[in-house]
Amino acid sequence: MPKPSPRPPIEVPGLAARRAAVEILDAVLRRKLPLDEQLGGKSAHPSLATLAERDRALMRRLVGTVLRRLGTLRHLLLGVLDKGFPAEAPRVEWILLVGAAQILWLDVPDHAAVDLSVRLAQSDRRAAHFTGLVNAVLRKLAKSGTPVAADPARDTPAWLLARWKKTYGAETARAIGTINGEEPALDITVKSDPAQWAERLRGRILPNGTVRVAAHGQVSLLPGFGEGAWWVQDAAAALPATLFGDMAGRTAADLCAAPGGKTAQLANAGAKVTAVDRSPGRLTRLRDNLARLKLEAEVVVADVLEWQAGSFDAVLLDAPCSATGTIRRHPDIPWLKGEAEIAVLTDLQRRLLDRAVELTRPGGTLVYCVCSLEPEEGEHQIAALLARDPRVLRAPISATEVFNQSQFINAEGDLRTLPSHWTDPDPRQAGLDGFYAARLRRL
Ligand SMILES: C[S@@+](CC[C@H](N)C(=O)[O-])C[C@H]1O[C@@H](n2cnc3c(N)ncnc32)[C@H](O)[C@@H]1O
Questions:
Q1: How much distance in Å is there from the Cα of 367 to the middle of ligand 1?
Q2: Which residue has its alpha carbon closest to ligand 1 atom 16?
Q3: What are the tens digits of pLDDT across the range 189-216?
Q4: How is domain 15-144 classified at the CATH fold level?
Q5: CB 304 near ligand 1, within 6 Å
Q6: Looking at ligand 1, which atom is closest to the CA of residue 256?
Q7: Which of 191, 262, 276, 370 is buried deepest, with most CB atoms within 10 A?
C-alpha cells in the first residue's frame, strides 16, 4: 500500500501550541537537548517564533506535564499499543504523549485532544502513516474515563529512584517523586517589604520571606518586575546566601554566580560582591538582572579554577551539579542526565572547593552549596574537605537561622532541604528545591 503523503495542516486554534510541544519533546527526548535552551534565548526552538503568548503558556504546560509524568504516560500508552511505539516515526510517540496528557490531566475536551493529535500526525511526513493508530489509541484511552494518578515510581528513572531510596528511604523517595510530578509555584525573592509584594502579587509569604505565587502568566508582566523590586528564586535557593549573617560592608566572592540569584541577595544585603562565572552568556543574564534590580557587583568572566584574586570575607560556591533537587522546575533533568555525570561533577566540585578555600581570608566564611539530592555532591564533598584540609572547620547551622525549620538541618549542622519538606494541602503551594549547604570557617 502506498504511504499517505502528509496533508498541509489546516491551522485550527490550539494546533500550533501542540505542534511546538511535539517539536520540543523531540529535541529533549530524542536529541537530548536541555529544555531551558529550547524555551528561550538564542537557541530557542524555531517553532516558538510565531507562537502567541497564550499558546506559549499552553505549550509549556503540555511539555511540562509530559516530562513530569513520562513514565506513567508511557506505561498507559504501551498498555493500549499492540506493538509498542513505532520506532521508524519517533514523532508518533510524542504526539501520543501530548494527546494522552490532555485527556488525562488537562482541561481539554477528549474529542479536541484526539482531533488535534490526528491533525498533527496527518501533517508529519513520517507520522502520517500512523494517523489511524493515533486516533484509535487516544480514543481508547479517553473511553476508559477513569481518573489516573501519576505514579512517582514510574516517573522517576530507576537509577535515580534507587539512589533516593538508599539515601532517604523508600517513603521519602516516593514523596520526592510525587512532588516532582506537580508543576511548582513561582517563588520570588523581594528586595524589601515581602508583605506588600505578597498582596500585590496575590501570593503568600513563606517563613523565609519568599513570596510564593500560584497562578501567573508571563513573569515579566507581573507588577514589580519592570521596576526591579524582585527576582525569581526558589525558596530553598534563597537560603545559602543568608548563612553569612550581616554582610553590610563586607567583601564577598560569588563563585559560579550566573544567572545571579545569590549575587543579587548578597548585593542587596550590602556586601561588596565580585561575581565570577566561566559562561559569558550566563553572565550577560546576570548583568541584565542586576541592572533591572539596580544592584551592583563586579562581574568577572573566568574559570574559578584559574582565577587569581586576593581573599574575601565571604565566599559562596554554588557549584555546578546534577541539579536533581530541581526536577520540579526542570523536568527534563531525569531524562537527560545519568549516573556517569555525577562522577565527573564530583571531581570538578572537589577542585572548585579547594580553590574556594584559598579565596577565603583567614577568619572568613565559606558557604558551599549544590541543588542536588545526591550525597556525593553535598555531604560527602564536605566530609572529604574537612578530612583533607585542617584550615577549615564546620560552623554548624542552627534551626533558628532557617526560621525554625528543624527538618532542614541534618545531624552535622548542614542545610539539607528536600522537595517533599514543604507540604501543603494545595499541591500548587507545596514543595521546594532540594538543596545542600555547609558553612565553613577558614582558620
Ligand atoms: C548552579 S549554577 C549557579 C547559579 C547561581 N549561583 C545563582 O544563584 O543564580 C552553576 C554555574 O557554575 C558555572 N561554572 C561551572 N564551572 C565553572 C568554573 N570552573 N568556573 C566558573 N564558573 C563555573 C556555570 O557556568 C553555572 O553558571
A1: 14
A2: 320
A3: 999 999 999 999 999 999 999 999 987 7
A4: N-utilizing Substance Protein B Homolog; Chain A (1.10.940)
A5: yes
A6: 12
A7: 370
- Antiparallel, parallel or unpaired: β 436-442 and 415-416: antiparallel
> Which atom of ligand 1 has the smallest separation from the CA of 321?
1
Q: How many CB atoms lie within 10 A of CB 266?
A: 27
Neighbours of 125 (CB within 10 A): 11
pLDDT tens column, 260-301: 999 999 999 999 999 999 999 999 999 999 999 999 999 999
405-442 residue pLDDT tens: 999 999 999 999 999 998 888 878 899 999 999 999 99
CATH number (2.40.170.20, 3.30.230.10, 3.40.50.150, 3.40.50.720) of 186-442 reads 3.40.50.150
By DSSP bridging, strand 251-255 and strand 312-318 are parallel
Nearest atom within ligand 1 for CA of residue 307: 20
318 ligand 1 Cβ < 6 A = yes
Contact 335, 157 (CB under 8 A): yes
Question: Which residues are annotated as catalytic?
Answer: 371
pLDDT in tens, 151-182: 999 999 999 999 999 999 999 999 999 999 99
Q: Is 277 in the pocket of ligand 1 (CB under 6 A)?
A: yes
* Residue 307 CA to ligand 1 centre (angstroms): 14
The answer to whether the bond into 427 is cis (omega within 30° of 0) is no
Cell of 292: 533591572
Coil vs helix vs strand at 211: strand
Do the domains at 15-144 and 186-442 have one common CATH topology?
no
The domain locations on the chain are 15-144, 186-442
Given ligand 1 and candidates 278, 286, 341, which is best to mutate, with the most ligand atoms within 8 Å of its CB? 278
Q: What is the mean pLDDT of residues 23-48?
A: 89
